[in-house]
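Handoff note, outgoing to incoming analyst
You'll be picking up this chain. Sequence as last confirmed:
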Amino acid sequence: MPANIQRGHSHPLGATLRGDGANFSVYALGAERVELLLFDRPSDERPARVISLDADNHHTFRYWHAHVGGVAAGQAYGYRVFGPHTDAGKVLLDPYARAVDVARWDRAAASRGGDNCATAPRGVLVDPHDYDWEGDRPLQRPIQQTVIYELHVRGFTVHPSSGVSTPNRGTFSGLVEKIPYLVDLGITAVELMPVMQFDAQEAPKGRTNYWGYCPMSWFAPHSGYASRPGATAVLDEFRAMVKAFHRAGIEVILDVVYNHTAEGGRRGPTFSWRGLADDTYYLHDHDGGYADFTGTGNTIKADHPVTRRMLFDSLVYWVEEMHVDGFRFDLASVLARDATGEPLPDPQLIRAIESHPVLAGTKMIAEAWDAAGLFQVGSFAGDRWHEWNAHYRDDLRRYLRGDPGSARSFVARLLGSPDIYGHEEREPEQSINFVTCHDGFPLADVVAYSRKHNLDNGEQDRDGLDENFSWNCGVEGSTDDLEIDLRRLRHGKSLLALLLLSLGTPMLSMGDELRRTQRGNNNAYCQDNEVSWLDWDALQRDAGLHRFVRATIRLRAELVDNGHRSLHETLQQVGAVWRDPDLAEPDWDGNPRCLAGTLRAPDGGTLLHWMINAGDRSCDFALPEPPAGQPWRRVLDSSLESPEDCCPGGDGEPIAASHYRLAAFSVALVRVPTTCARSG
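Most recent structure output, in case you need it:
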């Protein structure tokens, strides 16, 4: 054994700087021999050094390890695994690599048998502790004060109109340049679509996997989001971004994909997990193929102890070393399946995540369903999880477009979905309310398209949801008809106002405040172009809508009373009454198109009265008698032009009349000043 090659240790997994070199450890089930390949540069086609790890000296149980002297941060490396069920020609990526170089990556070569050394991804050794955080810590903002903004790192700033400096467009540094915009808008947390290294080549021919829901690593930030070349530079850039967000009072939530990998099904590439421990990392069906509960060709075996350990190690790493504030778990219900794929009645993995001491202060958000029909919204295991509430999105869209029988569910969504979360002492804030997200139409398309238009994706329009609960307001797609455009604007503003003032935790989708359109594409995962990018010229074109959203977020904050209380605590449903425009009991079975609701705080404080007109003509609403004879004051009317459409910071225009006329496809909110209400 060469003097600078020591036995090493099985723990920790991955490549770790230690002493005068580094310890390398990898889990390889069924391997008879493993080679550690060291490259002078990540771009080199062949390794400069091949270190054979034999079973006698470098093997503990199913872990292969060695300490290699003389290596330092920046060292590129990979593995070859030899055994009866492996392809020894494949160079494999360390699943624990903290940085990944994909400059030479070729998905097709990894999908064929034989040697792919020249085009395989390489892990890169880094020192995760070599960074000055300057006292930064995760913010741990109370969920009651949280307004989430989901965005795509590249799509947010890559458009030439973004005003971001050219080298930084589409990068983590580009986001830093746009922090003042987000602060001014009033959001308190960004939810970043996948930022772990993903396979951009997993897409139809001639297209790019833009969204990134195809992970190649659970530890390394995506190198394509760095403004400077090099697999290690992206770490500092990501951390600088997090630090800048925290300085601005904004949390960073990561959309994480622990349910599948980019290796796909039987015909997919072998570049890491499959070549190291296929039976450990993936669920298999009765025929020996890959179980597919994700719609991607494979499913992670989350119930296996080795896979579970890697998942926890990843989460802890992103909190401790990268300072992120929370996670949104893509297809989280996959994590509630056992080693055979069956749903678990009480999945311990889910409970272990929320109770882990390092993760205890982070935000945990579940997309509480998977692609195989397991739908757990309202019943996701655990006590601290928040959930994407798909019922909220669908029920608001259904009611406002006029679907029969949708009125009762619509009202329940505004009140924090008590039919879903009114059990086990769950608070409405556990509902992440949204009317749009990356998956589906943006808001401008919800009111401009009645069906999907996905031919550009190259899948013959078979991809994407067929039912979007959308309404084109009279004409499919773009139009010069000013009346239809006004109808769309009012409809969109109404959805945004309801979202931001409902009980629960609101989430906005990137560009909805600027009427970003995807031209009818409701599955733009492979559209790395202007279909998906945010056109910042809209900030001038739709300045009124932007101001309306900004003002409504501010109004929400005022209703929370600037404390740690939630909107739910401030406006509990004490005496909450929903009525028709004449203040009579609504005909729920008749699907009323106009509804009014009164909510009062338990201390007799702030009184709010909602008026919602989902019909196609204006409606006169009778106003209830305000307390102490004080006048109602209008604080929001989505049918009005800016700045009269939302008036935070004061008590709004007084209303002397006994009725309020509300235009079609609009919502209005009136209130009694807090001091007046309390005096009564």
